Amino acid sequence: MKSLLLTLTFLLSMATLATAQKQDKHAELPGSEEVSEARVADLTRQMCNQLHLNEAQYIRLRAANRIKLARLDEIQWQYKGEPAQQHAKIAELEAQYEAECSRILTPSQLSVLRDQQQRDSVPTPPANEGGIG
Q1: Where are the domains of the chain?
Q2: Is the alpha carbon torsion for 83, 117, 120, 36 positive or negative?
Q3: Is 8 helix (H, G, I), strand (E, B) or coil?
Q4: How far is the CA of 54 from the CAs of 70, 93, 111, in angstroms?
Q5: What spans are recorded as compositionally biased (Polar residues) (predicted)?
């Protein structure tokens, strides 16, 4: 009986240690393992509404968005002290993402996506430039 209790205690302590080590890994590399499903769902839903995706496109684009967001978080964390390197890696990621989108979307959907990305990247000027009132 004592040996059974001792064995269970030992296994429980090993499981606790394994969990603690796994949590340390997540603390070391935040965002690299898992992306918020809400972020992925929001991004994919917005794209679905704009591009009128079918179900197969939605599923494939959701997977691509999950990978993109995870990699984006990783790049931002990994290169936070090196802005030039960070921008280069993000540009590379965007090129890979656009290539994946070109495999998923139709040419007309891809055109709408590019137009939307251009509008998002160009800042809109303030409505009241340089005057009082």
Answers
A1: 32-107
A2: negative
A3: helix
A4: 24, 25, 17
A5: 112-121
Question: Cβ neighbours of residue 33 under 8 Å, at least 6 residues apart?
Answer: 25, 26, 70
pLDDT tens readout for residues 87-128: 999 999 999 999 999 999 999 999 999 998 888 876 666 556
- Cβ atoms of 109 and 51 closer than 8 Å: yes
CA distance linking residue 115 with residue 94, whole number of Å: 15
Closest among 69, 61, 63 to 31, alpha carbons compared: 69
Whole-angstrom distance, CA of residue 16 vs CA of residue 20:
6
Give the amino acid at 18: A
> What is the residue type of 107?
P
Global confidence as pTM: 0.65
79 three-class SS: coil
Amino acid at 17: L
- Residue 14 CA to residue 37 CA, distance in Å, equals 31
Structure token pair of residue 75? 């790049």
Q: Which amino acid is at 33?
A: E
